[in-house]
UniProtKB/TrEMBL annotation:
Species the sequence originates in: Actinoplanes sandaracinus
A Pfam family per the record: Glyco_tran_28_C
Protein name, entry field: Glycosyltransferase
Lineage: Bacteria, Bacillati, Actinomycetota, Actinomycetes, Micromonosporales
Family annotation (SUPFAM superfamilies): UDP-Glycosyltransferase/glycogen phosphorylase (SSF53756)
Ranges annotated as spanning the membrane: none
UniProt xrefs under InterPro entries: Glyco_trans_28_C
Record Gene3D superfamilies: Glycogen Phosphorylase B (3.40.50.2000)
Length: 725
């Protein structure tokens, strides 16, 4: 009888109470979600002297079938063996674990020592000799962080380590909570297993980081009794919760700032609790030595700087919120589940593909191409988002655009190899016939270009789902814009299983999103809002005005109310143009490159048809725009004073909520009823220079940046994983 070959075997002591078990649990969850099988091989660690049960997270995985626990002495076979916690091998195990694997990785999730003793916890050379004797000299040695890497090399300068760290991962969707509603006083908190070295050494620094002050509360989950012992008293404003009596995610919902300072001798391997706090939307305040791990997403200071920083941020709610969002986005992009699947794929472990239909025989994936598939749409939003990603793919990663949009020629002019797929409306076909055509056309393009990745910015039509099933050799990614209208699109969400991954462009108005994608964030990779251009690519005001033939010395306004393909946009245009002309503005009408009907002439207005119009936004003093995803985020990102006139006739896009949020944030104005008095009232404010200056300043404060490069790098990682480049 042939033994089952699991995708991944994880060997460790599953009784560890802290980060080691939490890290293992996260990787098992990521593997199970991707359809990979995991077997757990338990080896008792010699330094865990007391009898204790498996960590609850591990038992939960075994109970729900996410992982299989091998019996003691059971022979195990796996494609990849992952060994965690080198201290297990400070002594010979009672019996060698009978594990056969194609490849093996030792994850160095703890430094050999600390600042005072580089071998306090284990002798690296001794552990390496023992591990290689058990699992072979080909095992990889993967530090969990730059700190651990540095300490291993300090102890053993000749150690051969993996080029990339085997960093921690987390599912941010399981941790996030809204921290925008703050109480009467700020709440500082921290959580973690009890350990004296995880606290500042001196009483002075301890009280600086966790103050005894009536206008600040301190909450501690785990280890609080050690701090009290060090202080010799318990401050009245401190709340201490026993380790293990409250789930960390629940605890983090009850604090406003996560503050973590420890003994200077401690070499913190990673800081999983920091990552959890950021994923939960809690601003993190830590020491500068954590910067290599958390970049600009954390706040760095000394214990002495904690209280001033807390008070400063607590008084600036908008900055506080932006830091919450920045931390969450960073964690999801850097340490989300997909990053783990990519490193598994680098070692030959990939999700299994569904069986192919008997009559199909697609050519194997041989190229590193990314096929960008866009829906028809009424504007250029779907296509522009994909082109924004495509033009930022790293060198050596080619792309092909396949679009149902009339804007195929736009993509061609922008330098993309472009394939046109006529939409159902163009061909006037019955739904079933068009679905078959779409499936057939996509299959042909995949066989022709042999892409490693197919990125689809579209709802998953029947033809797309059928093509994904028949051509599973590529990695299929749904580029799914958020902010859908309430009670719409549930049938599309149910089809997410057709894709290997979901990429969600960021949304400035995410807090106002009540659509169905909000409840479907599990395993979704998010980036910042995607715009076609970066701010540095915009023409300077004088150059933009020259291109658009605008007179110098007079303010100019741009009207871009959409493609004109959903509803009649001509009626409010004339009123808006007249009101702006009366205020002394030159008026430019932007006609979409794919408008199916020409825009009727408007007295005194100059018509332009250029792509991308965003390149010339700095030539305008004011823009009156629909609130579609692309134009909305461009105006916010580039600090252009804007009046949004949301389109209420869209099938999925919730332009009304998006525009209302921007107005509530002070970043734009909104015309709720363009046919009523609301339009004149709002425009009367918009033409004032002080109002426009205020809007620009506000945009500069809250803009989230461009996520197109992050999205491109994320897709490129799948290409490299599949092609081995």
């Amino acid at each position: 009888m042939t033994a089952t070959v699991h995708d991944v075997a994880i060997l460790s002591d599953f009784r560890y109470p802290g980060g080691t078990s939490a890290s293992i649990a996260a990787e098992v969850r990521a593997q199970a979600r991707a359809g990979l099988t995991t077997v757990l091989v338990h080896v008792r660690s010699p330094h865990l002297k007391k009898e204790r049960p498996f960590h609850p997270l591990i038992t939960g995985l075994i109970r729900d079938g996410s992982a299989y626990l091998a019996a003691e002495g059971e022979e195990v076979a796996a494609k990849l063996l992952v060994v965690r916690q080198p201290r297990i091998f400070t002594e010979d195990p009672a019996s060698p674990p009978p594990v056969r694997a194609g490849r093996a990785v030792m994850v160095l999730n703890q430094a050999p020592g600390d600042a005072g003793d580089p071998a306090r916890y284990y002798d690296f050379a001794e552990v390496r000799k023992r591990v290689e004797g058990l699992f072979g000299a080909g095992i990889e040695w993967a530090p969990i962080s730059p700190q651990v890497r540095a300490e291993v090399l300090r102890a053993e300068p000749g150690a051969v380590l993996t080029g990339a760290d085997w960093h921690e991962i987390i599912d941010g969707s399981q941790w996030w909570s809204d921290h925008s509603k703050l109480g009467s006083v700020p709440v500082i908190g921290r959580h973690g297993r009890p350990d004296p070295v995880k606290w500042p050494r001196t009483r002075a620094e301890l009280l600086q980081a966790y103050p005894d002050a009536p206008d600040i509360r301190v909450r501690v989950l785990g280890g609080g009794e050690l701090a009290v012992e060090r202080l010799g008293r318990r401050p009245a404003n401190w709340e201490i919760i026993e380790f293990g009596t409250c789930e960390p995610a629940e605890f983090l919902r009850g604090i406003d700032f996560f503050v973590y300072f420890h003994d200077p001798d401690l070499i913190e391997a990673f800081g999983r609790t920091i990552m959890e706090a950021m994923a939960a939307g809690v601003p993190v305040i830590v020491g500068e030595h954590f910067r290599p791990l958390f970049a600009d997403a954390a706040l760095y200071t000394t214990p002495e700087g904690v209280v001033p920083l807390v008070r400063e941020l607590y008084a600036d709610r908008e900055r506080y919120r932006s830091i919450c969002l920045r931390g969450r986005e960073f964690i999801e992009s850097r340490y989300g589940y997909p990053s783990h699947l990519i490193r598994l794929a680098d070692r030959g472990v990939r999700p299994g593909a569904p069986p192919q239909p008997a009559l199909t025989a697609p050519r194997p994936v041989e190229t590193g191409t990314v096929l960008l598939v866009s829906d028809n749409g009424v504007g250029l939003g779907h296509l522009s988002r994909l082109m924004a990603i495509g033009r930022r793919l790293p060198g050596g990663v080619p792309s092909v655009v396949a679009t149902q949009s009339h804007g195929a020629m736009v993509a061609h002019r922008e330098g993309f190899l472009t394939e046109y797929i006529p939409s159902r409306s163009v061909l006037n076909l019955p739904r079933q016939a068009w679905s078959e055509l779409l499936r057939s056309r996509l299959e042909h393009l995949i066989d022709l270009h042999r892409p490693a990745v197919v990125a689809v910015d579209s709802v998953p039509h029947d033809g797309i789902v059928a093509a994904a099933r028949s051509r599973p050799g590529a990695t299929w990614v749904w580029v799914r814009r958020p902010m859908w209208r309430r009670d719409t699109g549930a049938e599309w969400i149910e089809r997410r299983a057709a894709f290997h991954h979901i990429l969600e462009p960021g949304e400035f108005a995410a807090a106002a999103d009540e659509g169905p994608t909000v409840a479907d964030r599990g395993g979704v990779h998010t980036v910042r809002p995607i715009t076609y251009l970066d701010a540095a690519e915009l023409a300077e005001p004088e150059a933009a005005r020259a291109v658009l033939e605008l007179e110098p010395g007079h303010p100019a306004a741009l009207l871009q109310l959409g493609a004109g393909n959903i509803n009649d946009i001509s009626s409010p245009v004339a009123r808006i143009a007249r009101r702006l002309r009366d205020a002394g503005f030159q008026v430019v009408l932007a006609e979409s490159a794919i408008a199916t009907e020409p825009m009727p002439p408007v007295d005194g207005a100059h018509l332009v048809r250029v792509y991308p119009i965003s390149r010339y936004l700095r030539g305008f003093d004011l823009v009156v725009s629909a609130a579609g995803y692309n134009s909305f985020h461009e105006l916010i990102a580039f600090g252009i004073p804007a009046v949004f006139v949301p389109n209420r006739e869209t099938a999925l896009d919730d332009q009304v909520s998006r525009a209302r949020f921007a107005a509530a944030a002070g970043a734009a104005l909104i015309v709720e009823d363009p046919d009523g008095d609301d339009l004149d009232r709002v425009l009367a404010r918009a033409v004032r220079a002080d109002v426009r200056e205020s809007l620009s300043r506000r945009c500069a404060e809250v803009a989230l940046g461009n996520g197109a490069t992050d999205a491109a790098d994320w897709l490129a990682a799948f290409v490299h994983a599949r092609t081995g480049t």
